[in-house]
Specification:
Layout lengths: L1 H29 L3 H25 L7 H31 L5 H27 L1 E10 L10 E5 L10 H13 L4 E4 L10 H11 L7 E3 L3 H5 L2 H9 L4 E2 L3 E7 L2 E7 L7 H16 L8 E4 L5 H7 L4 E4 L23 E5 L2 E5 L15 E10 L2
Parallel strand pairs: 1-12, 2-3, 3-4, 4-5, 7-8, 8-9, 9-11
Antiparallel strand pairs: 2-12, 6-7, 10-11
Protein name: Calcineurin-like phosphoesterase domain-containing protein
GO molecular function, one term: metal ion binding
GO cellular component, one term: membrane
Length: about 375
Amino acid sequence: MARVNFILLVLLTVSFVTAFVNSACLTGLWGLNWYSLFGGFLSVSWLAAVYYFFYADLYLTTFAGAFGRFLALLSVSWLMWQLAVAVPLVIVRVLSLFGGKTGLWSTLTACILVGAVVMIGAGLYGSEHLDYETKELRYTSLPYQFDGTKIALITDLHIGPYYHVSDLAEILEQAERDEVDYIVLGGDLIDDVRELPALQKLLKEKAPNFRLGIDYVWGNHEYFRNQPLIADYLAQSDIRVLKNEHATLSRDGATIYVAGVDYPFERGENLKAQAKEYTDQAMAGIPERAFVMLLAHHPQFLEEGFTRHVELTLAGHTHGMQFGPAGQTFPLMYPYNRGLFTRGASVGYVSRGAGGWMPLRVFCDREVTYFTLKRGR
């Protein structure tokens, strides 16, 4: 209860501060009525914060359905809009105190407000729209029996308030229609353990429909949401969970290897050492000239894949940073933050994710990725 009260207090405090700042700035820049602005901003912001908070706990019952989700998206949009305009308006207000044409500051203010609306609208569209990316990868080392094998990478769905088991069902049904052979679930699959029974039932039903099955690796959010309980449900769902170990995929007498690694919680140089340790464990015993896929949640493992000349490394975690008007943004945070990377004959891919715990994606839509493996150069 203490944690619940703290989070709600933070949301309400942020609502108050942003409402105050935006009202003060608009009053100074446009001469609008202070009391009306502040009262309106504060009322809507507090309602949005309270609804946003309680929706996460009650979306399966009280706020169930499309309308409840729509209201939640509106609440998030309003709160983000308030935050997005606060800092720019403060900057404009401070600059206006040094003089200049009144019309200039009014125009800048209008641009800020409209720009924030456009960005939030783009964010809402990106949170709902799902792209199916397709990549064809060629390898001379691929056994000819696997020529044409189609793989689907599904990461970061974050089943919970904004994305549900039904979303995964739609993705898997589309994969069936697209004749996918093998599904990779790249972690951060579930945030709300109340949806575990429905998830288990879906995976048990769908796993036999894919010729090479479904493999899963752990993300960080499963550890935040009761990883032992999630492990129990997944163990009975007919999918394969790989944790610093490898397995094989067989087709017409040929074999390729799949190495799956756990999520590394270290940082900096310790992260690199932990990623190396996990990859060592996962790849121990794999024949030297075997075709290998490395499955991970954290994109640090792309470096491990490149170093070891692994044919294909798949990861997620970053959500593409959920903000991408300029392409691969924030490279200092994650050198491999989204998209396709190559080094020699090795390929690495970081998915933007099929969902998210914050339902706003600005020019960085949700993604499921299909890879078709081809033999040859």
